[in-house]
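Ticket opened by: R.M.
Priority: normal
Category: complex prediction / small molecule

The reporter submitted a protein together with adenosine-5'-diphosphate and asked that the result be attached to this ticket for the collaborator who will pick it up next week. Submitted input follows.
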Amino acid sequence: MRSSNLILEFKGIDTHYGDLHVLKNVNYEIAKGEIVCLLGGNACGKSTTMKTIMGVVRPTRGIVTFEGEEIHRLPTAERVRRGIAPVLEARRLFPRMTVFENLEMGAYTRAHGPEFNEDLERVYELFPRVKERRNQISGTLSGGEQQMVAMGRALMARPKLICMDEPSMGLSPLYVEQVFDIIQTINKQGTTIFMVEQNANMALSIAHHAYVLQTGQVVLAGTAAEMRANPMIREAYLGEMQVPAAAQ
Ligand SMILES: Nc1ncnc2c1ncn2[C@@H]1O[C@H](COP(=O)(O)OP(=O)(O)O)[C@@H](O)[C@H]1O
Ligand SMILES: [Mg+2]
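Result attached by the on-call engineer:
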């Protein structure tokens, strides 16, 4: 049963900012070991979904569970301690710190020990560029490099689930491919991934399941293969025009 293997679940979630009702009775089921992708147009509540998982905003109704336990009332730090790591919009590195210091911050829940060095080596192996730049001030890195540091920092926490908000945003095509390759590698090494992505083509090429949000409501859910075959998705997110029958 899929439901016995869930790592994260939204049950009937509503989220508001003051009077603005953003998420409306949203349900997600993220199974352990999957890459799940959240698609949707501008301002439909994708980032709000990620913020609701991390506890940056609190839902006004409904339940969020992680490994079967309710987490929606817990502070962000406790959610991180339980194994959820964010790679949120704009990357939010500490810009005046070096790359190495940013990676250290990712592991702040643990003291430096053999594990720290192992994790650091793993990050440097996944991101050779990050290793090269380890002593550089983070604010001076390119966008693609900052994204890699942000992903590396998330991995330093040894998370069970990584929540990514638009990991390919603002990256050149070469970096986009690298970032998606690395997401897939991280997943194969055992970490569940929930990501928001505008680049639906790339996202659906590595995802197992996907959800589509429209003005705060889930309008479609299914496997990545079903999504790729869906005419509505092909037209709205994969950049394919529907050819009128008369023109065929
Ligand atoms: N902190 C906030 N305060 C008030 N409104 C917000 C806040 N954050 C987002 N919103 C509004 O909530 C809606 C959904 O935003 P968001 O989840 O960021 O959308 P997106 O799908 O583009 O990531 C938007 O209309 C946005 O303007
Ligand atoms: Mg957003």
